[in-house]
Amino acid sequence: MRTLLFSILLMATVSMTYAAKVPFIDGGIYKAKETAGRDGKLFFVDFYATWCMPCRLMDETTFQDAGVVNYVNKYYVPVKVDVDDFDGIAYKQQYNIKVLPTTLVFNSKGELLERVEEALSPSKMLSLLKKHNKSFNRKVTITTPVENPTPATTYTPKPKVNHNSAPAKKPAKKKKANTGGGLYRFDVEKEPAIGYSVQVGVYADYANVLQQTAILKENYGSKPLLVHIANLGDRIVYRVMLGRFDDKASAKKFLNRIKSDGGEGVIKTLDELD
User: Fold this and answer.
1) CA–CA dist 203, 139 (Å, integer)
2) Residue 10 Cα to chain centre, angstroms
3) For the domain 196-272, what is the CATH code?
């Protein structure tokens, strides 16, 4: 009877400990950076794949631990990136993701503070989050949300691969498309491919296009928003561009403004788009 009672109490304790979950946001890394800058928080990125067993272990334990959940809610904006979807493949290349799971921690400016390439227990995750939770890392900033936060020039050296990690080399799987949320209003006109523009993102999911353009419209309402539809193999991709300029110097000046706001971009010659 005593053993049975102990088992029941243990089950109740475990259930209470893992009742909540870390509230990962939708919208990708650019949305996490924008939210962190607006709210004065840090943000972290969990790179994972559906086939990665250590990643699943973190989902079932670390990201449901009450201590981790409460701390994240107070100080961090969390986001997940599936390395097998289109945007995830681009992030995987940009941040040189070789091992899963990989956790990247950024300050509110979008500067990379640390990368960890292993499955983290609740205590290790909490220790990592507390390590970087300094007031100078979570200042409110006026930023333009971008798809690719700018990494710092230095970061913590990569740890060795261990039994808690898995190589990130599994063939890509198709992920259910994000249908997006909310109501959007927009006017569509066919644009001549003349002049220059600043590309601020490339997406395979049209819901991300709507979310990104809505945010850009709010921050740069006076500049025209352009979306170029292209084929990449058997995929349709959308280039989101901001502004139209007669000369490259004007486009570069505007790109510098975006960068001063904390964003990133690249100048595109419109008549050379595929």
Assistant:
1) 29
2) 36
3) 3.30.70.1070
Non-local (6+) Cβ contacts of 67 within 8 A are 122, 126
Instruction: Decide if 19-167 and 196-272 have a common fold.
Output: no
Q: Which two tokens stand for residue 186?
A: 């927009």
Query: Hey, is 145 helix, strand or coil?
Result: coil
Phi and psi torsions of 130, nearest 5°: -70, -35
- CA–CA gap between residue 169 and residue 174 (Å, rounded): 15
The helix/strand/coil state of 254 is helix
- Superfamily designation of domain 19-167: Glutaredoxin (3.40.30.10)
pLDDT for 181-226, tens place per residue?
667 776 778 888 889 999 887 777 777 788 778 888 888 888 888 8
pTM over the 0.70 mark: no
